[in-house]
Design goal:
The structure holds two protein chains of two kinds.
Chain A: H1 5-12, E1 16-20, E2 23-26, H2 27-43, E3 52-56, H3 60-72, E4 76-80, H4 85-95, E5 99-102, E6 105-108, E7 126-133, E8 139-145, H5 146-159, E9 167-170, H6 177-189, E10 192-194, H7 201-211, E11 215-219, H8 220-229, E12 242-246, H9 252-262, E13 266-272, E14 276-281, E15 286-287, E16 290-291, E17 295-296, E18 301-305, E19 318-323, E20 330-332, E21 340-342, E22 345-355, E23 358-364, E24 369-371, E25 374-376, H10 378-385, E26 391-401, E27 404-413, H11 419-429, E28 438-441
Parallel strand pairs in A: 1-10, 3-4, 3-5, 9-10, 9-11, 11-12, 12-13, 27-28
Antiparallel strand pairs in A: 1-2, 5-6, 7-8, 8-20, 13-14, 14-17, 15-16, 18-19, 19-22, 21-22, 22-23, 24-25, 26-27
Helix pairs in contact in A: 2-3, 5-6, 8-9
Chain B: H1 4-19, H2 43-56, H3 73-88
Helix pairs in contact in B: 1-2, 1-3
Classes of the chains: A alpha/beta, B mainly alpha.
């Protein structure tokens, strides 16, 4: 199994596996509760190999469920509790889950097409699925085997220097790839994961000070918020060895302001649900005012390739392709577009270039919106809005916001309709981060001769 | 302390600026902020909370950011009114 419960219990029993504002979950407590839950899940009929959609909250019970499902051998897809019922159903259907587990209680989905987990080339069973985004509005789910999950946890600890005595604070939802991988890496290492009261920068800094946090992990948005809103009477990050920003979007200005203000390094890391960690920039390497994604991570071969998959020389822009043992088995529900996985190679759909061993982000060849680290597929939002009777045509685009992108819908309306009505409509169908923050009305959208939307002319 | 109507206008101004709302997007006391379960720690809400703290020179604690206080613009204005009144007393 991906986590060795006997080892965790024996070595780290009294240490806090997770620290919440209202108390700690020790390793001994986690292992005890996980063993009980495995028994309960089996008693209700959940068998190894059967897939589960797991509704996640930021609490100890969700961590117990994650560890239990790994121990039981039931592959799972984590889904945030804030996702409304239709969004949960779409994801569970895409995964062909036989069970839905919420607050520790399993319920059969009753799906006729429920599938057992796949096996990797080494015969290892599927451990979990991580939601990615395609360009057709269908959720893409990257599948990881137990051995790949173990490998990712080990690589993450080494590459991101997570040590046994560290107290990690991660400002991510557990169901998010960054949150789940940090949780599992931290458990694997026997270190602690601290959850703040909220993502407010003041709350994050106070939690760091109060809980002796040694590693701070967050999205570029968090560091942008910290730099923009910091007050003199807020605590520093005295016990923190370094901070780490995930995904793209961290500006050189924010990086410099943060490192000057707190006197600790701020690492930039780049990865994907499909590939795990890809690049690490520990020293703030930059070129021409742009912070590098980093050099290739431990055990990862990173190349810049043209459309035919041929490697490009330094300074030329092409697709970022990562190859490693950590690349997912493949997709469930693969629409065959956007990013691709092929025999240990991940074709990211992100554009980049290499300079002196460092990789730089140069845009996306696929149309994803980066909402503070959570990827939003515009097509998925467009499909929902087109179901509204007042919407004749729609294009969903990214709108620049400090440190991230916001979702904006450009709507051609059949009849007068309030923006709030369209937002409410989306809110009933989609997870909150996918709901457009702004609605702009136009009389028509630019389309080419065959009726395809010309996004570049929007 | 400023009256409720003036405070409501300020809250609307803060919301417009923090979310980059255009002038043609109608915002009034009835405008809902927590549409269909918008998460409390969502980026948009956090931006709005920080913008309110900046504009009104106050701290909104984590346990004050709940759906009851951030259900609509009018409720936020009322919350800010009582918070500022509490700070003055």
């Amino acid at each position: 199994m991906a986590l060795d419960l006997d080892l965790l219990e024996g070595r780290f029993a009294t240490r806090a596996a997770a620290q919440f504002p209202d108390g700690a979950l020790t390793y001994a407590g986690l292992v005890d509760r996980a063993r009980v839950r495995v028994g309960e899940l089996r008693a209700r009929g959940l068998e190894p190999g059967q897939r589960t959609a797991l509704i996640c909250r930021q609490n100890a019970d969700t961590i117990v469920s994650i560890v239990s499902l790994l121990e039981l051998g039931s592959p799972f897809l984590p889904i945030g509790h804030v996702a409304p019922a239709p969004d949960r159903s779409r994801l569970a259907a895409a995964y062909r889950a036989a069970w839905l587990v919420e607050d520790g209680k399993p319920t059969p989905t009753g799906r006729d097409d429920a599938r057992e987990g796949r096996r990797g080339p080494d015969g290892e069973p599927e451990a979990l699925a991580l939601a990615s985004s395609g360009s057709t509005g269908r959720p893409k789910l990257a599948l990881l085997s137990q051995s790949q999950l173990r490998s990712r946890m080990t690589q993450k600890c080494r590459s991101h220097d997570i040590q046994r005595n560290d107290r990690n604070l991660g400002v991510f939802p557990i169901e998010h790839t960054a949150g789940l991988q940090l949780l599992l890496a931290s458990l694997n290492q026997g270190s602690g994961l601290v959850f703040p009261n909220s993502a407010h920068p003041r709350s994050v800094l106070r939690t760091c000070a109060d809980e002796g946090v040694t590693l701070l992990h967050g999205s570029a948005t968090l560091f942008d918020f910290i730099v923009r809103s910091r007050r003199a009477d807020w605590p520093g990050l005295d016990a923190v060895r370094f901070a780490r920003s995930t995904a793209v979007g961290l500006s050189l200005e924010t990086h410099r302001a943060f490192t000057e203000a707190f006197g600790i390094p701020l690492w930039q890391t780049y990865g994907a649900s499909e590939a795990g960690g890809i690049c690490v920039n520990r020293d703030g390497a930059s070129h021409d005012g742009v912070l590098a994604l980093g050099a290739a991570g431990l055990g990862v071969d990173v190349r810049i390739c043209d459309e035919r998959g041929r490697e490009l020389p330094d300074g030329e822009v092409g697709e970022i392709v990562a190859s490693s043992l950590n690349v997912a088995l493949g997709y469930e529900n693969d629409p065959g577009t956007g990013s691709r996985i092929h025999q240990g190679h991940f074709f990211s759909g992100d554009l980049g270039e290499r300079r002196n061993g460092f990789f730089y982000f140069r845009g996306r060849s696929k149309l994803l919106i980066n909402m503070a680290g959570k990827k939003v597929d515009p097509f998925e939002v467009e499909q929902i809005l087109l179901r509204h009777p007042s919407v004749e045509d729609v294009a969903v685009v990214a709108e620049a916001a400090p440190g991230h992108e916001a979702v904006k819908a450009i709507v051609v309306a059949r009849e007068p309709v309030e923006p709030e009505a369209l937002m409410d409509f989306c809110g009933r169908e989609l997870a909150p981060h996918k709901v457009p923050r702004r609605i702009e009305f136009r009389s028509a959208l630019p389309r080419n001769a065959i009726g395809k939307l010309s996004r570049e002319r929007l | 302390m400023e009256g409720r109507a003036a405070l409501l206008e300020r809250v609307i101004g803060v919301l417009r600026k923090s979310l980059g709302l255009s002038e043609d997007q109608r915002v009034d006391a009835e405008t809902k902020l927590l549409r269909a379960g918008l998460t409390l720690d969502s980026v948009a809400l956090l931006e709005f909370v920080m913008a309110l703290e900046d504009a009104f020179h106050c701290e909104i604690e984590d346990d004050e950011i709940d759906p009851l206080r951030f259900g609509s613009v009018g409720v936020v204005a009322e919350f800010m009114h009582s918070k500022l009144a509490g700070a003055e007393s």
